[in-house]
Amino acid sequence: MSIQTTVVGSYPKPPPEGRPFTIRKTKHAIERGEATPEDLERAFDEHTREVIAEQEAAGIDIITDGHARWDDILTPFARHMAGFQIGGLLRWFDNNVYYRRPICTGKIEWRGPATVDQFKFAQSVATKPVKAVLPGAVTFAHMSVDEHYADHEEFAMSIARVLAQEAFELEAAGATYIQIDEPALLEHPEDLRLARECTYIITSELKSAETILATYFGDAKRLGPELFDFSVATFGFDLISGPENAVLVKELPSEKKLQAGIVDARNTRLETEEDLERSIIELGEIAGAESLSVSPSAGLEFLPREKARAKLERLANAAKKVGA
Amino acid sequence: MTTPELPGKGLWTTSVGSMPKPDYILKARSQYARKEIDRSELKELEQKATREWIEFQESIGTDVVVDGEMYRGDMVAFFAEEMPGLEIGGLVRSYGNRFYRKPIATGPVGRDKPMTVEWWEYAQSLTEKPVKGMLTGPYTICDWSFNEHYDSRRDFVLDLAKAIRDEALDLERAGAKYIQIDEPAASTRMDELDLVIEAMQIVTEPLEAHTITHICYGDFHRAYPKMLEIPVDQIDLEFANSEYGLLEEFSDHPFTKYIGLGISDVHTHEIEPVDEMVQGIRQTMKHIPPERIFVDPDCGLKTRTTEEAKEKLSNIKKAVDVVKAEL
Questions:
Q1: Among candidates B148, B228, B230, which has minimal Cα distance to B181?
Q2: Which residues does chain B have within 8 Å of residue A309's beta carbon, measured at their own beta carbons?
Q3: Mutating which of B144, B146, B195, B243 best tests the A interface, going by the most A Cβ atoms within 10 A?
């Protein structure tokens, strides 16, 4: 019985040390009028191929496209919705990473798929299933400014309805795993019901894709086991920044699955395979080996490329060993 | 509190720290990285660029000038390169298309020699205006580094604080009357604001200079008024980027220090019109008297083009002159 391995989302954009940083160079060249958007698309595609190959070579079972085209998880979607403008830079949770805050100035409407083409390309060059990732509506609402709805619930639900269309299109394009990221829910337990409602809106039209609700950067303890009523198959937790999550997962209902973030995606210190094996065995006893997948604690873009890769290799080796 | 000895009765102009590097510096830095030129050739150009920025600041009448950091790359990596215990790691992204080499603590962190004093002395030798000493704060160096050595963040931060204090003392001995200890990460975690304060206490306690800290990108609404406990004379904050939202807080809890009032967004190409800046200063003066206001851009200007930076700084000075004429 092998233990499934996955990633949470992003992958470092810089190349391996010593290789040209084509994405960065091309973006600079565009600013100087020396490259075209098509050149950048090619650079993104090339990078996507590489990071997919890298995840597969490391032994990861369910991969992502590494979010090559995304500066953060909100703006790629906000740019494709009527009603949003893109505002100033703000810190992304407690990281030295910044995102541009979406500003809602009008009625939010679907303007066509934001990420479906990226998904299709990634899946076409992958041999493993590519997981599609969406921001959760509650996180989206908290990280944005609402100048239109003046009602937090209505604002979040309007976002959820558009994300539902994106999820539907992603499934139609072949996505078998769709992950909804709700890191902001950890600091807003008062929004648990709203998040459940929004998650229901996003997932209700899906037929067969396996859905994951991912939290990271902290403890979900305050949310309590009520969280497990959400209409998703799998719950993702960050067991590094949220050590109390180890307690919460003991209450996971038997029909639900666990995506356990056991490798620190925000520090370079490499975990030993022995330590990872121990965590995997413990979690397997709690969730059942067939309901467990293991992952880094968050997106890997917080790490240099070499460290991200080394961490994935260790994770996959440990999972393989425990499975054997 | 150390009162600034500056001409006039307030509304002084300054800069947060970094300035854009001219093309010849960017070129020279990459040539140096490829070992096509040597250290002294690079340094000569860095001195030329420093002279140009000092001359520019003098030409528009800036009160407290900066050296522009022509010789620094990233604000944390610059110190990490000089400090035992810190290594330079791989590239990570901070936002958009901007990446930096994030340091890694691999052993006990300290300081074995002055890191910024020679450049400060050089810059001060070029001008009669006071030049600010520019340091990155201990909490920010910790927060923007990986940690493979320390068991706790506090241990890491306090070791850094002692090193930065020694650097600040050396700057003061060299004659610096204004020392800025940047803590842009200070508003990241509310539960660590006490650690920011504890570390800053170590740094500023023995100093007689006017001390400043710069904080940005944070949730000020949560960090205020607690941030007033950071033991410095002046807190420098971004106002343009947040549309002066923080001023509301000052009604409930008066701002008790000197303020560095950022009135130009450093992340946009747009040059804010003088009128808009004048409005911002007037609005601020409803809460803080002019004799406790320094006016500057929101943050370091290094991400702008040279022309944009100069226009922004010129407009700031023009806006200040408009308001001063009304006093």
A1: B230
A2: none
A3: B146
Rg value, chain B, Cα: 19
Distance CA A55, CA A313 (A): 8
pLDDT (tens digit, 9 = 90+) per residue, A267-293? 999 999 999 999 999 999 999 999 999
Domain ranges of chain B: 12-72+110-326
Q: Residue type for A195, please?
A: A
| CB-based contact B189 A94, cutoff 8 Å | yes
Please answer whether residues B182 and B134 qualify as being in contact, where contact means their C-beta atoms are separated by less than 8 angstroms. yes
Terminal-residue alpha carbon distance, chain B:
25
Q: How far apart are CA B170 and CA B162, in angstroms?
A: 13
Question: Right CATH number for A4-72+115-136+151-323 from 3.40.50.720, 3.20.20.210, 3.30.750.24, 3.30.200.20?
Answer: 3.20.20.210
Q: Among A165, A166, A276, A259, which residue's Cα sits nearest to residue A215?
A: A259
Q: What is the pLDDT of residues B22-38, one digit of tens each?
A: 999 999 999 999 999 99
* The pLDDT value given to residue A323: 87
Q: What is the mean pLDDT of chain A?
A: 97
> A12–B92: do the CB atoms touch at under 8 Å?
yes
**SS3 assignment for B1-56:** CCCCCCCCCCCEECCCCECCCCHHHHHHHHHHHCCCCCHHHHHHHHHHHHHHHHHH
Give residue-wise pLDDT tens across range B219-238: 777 889 999 999 999 999 99
pLDDT digits (tens, 9 = 90+) for B182-223: 999 998 888 999 999 999 999 999 999 999 999 986 677 788
Structure tokens at A261: 């973030």
Question: pLDDT value at position B82?
Answer: 96
Distance of CA A191 to the CA centre of its chain: 20
Task: Check CB contact under 8 Å for B188 and A91.
Answer: yes
Span B12-72+110-326: which CATH code? 3.20.20.210
Of residues B104, B146, B217, nearest to A98 (C-beta): B217
Mean pLDDT by 10 residues, chain B (327 residues): 89 97 96 94 98 98 98 93 96 94 97 97 98 98 97 97 98 98 91 96 98 84 91 95 85 95 91 96 96 96 95 97 95
Contact A165, A119 (CB under 8 A): no
Distance from CA of B186 to the nearest CA of A (A): 11
The whole-model pTM stands at 0.91
As a whole number of angstroms, the distance between CA B167 and CA B206 comes to 12
Where are the alpha helices (H) located in A127-213, listed in sequence order?
A: 137-143, 152-172, 192-203
Hey, how many other C-beta atoms are within 10 angstroms of the C-beta on B226?
15
pLDDT for A1 equals 61
Chain B touched by A12 (CB under 8 Å) = yes
What is the distance of C-alpha A55 from the center of its chain?
Answer: 15
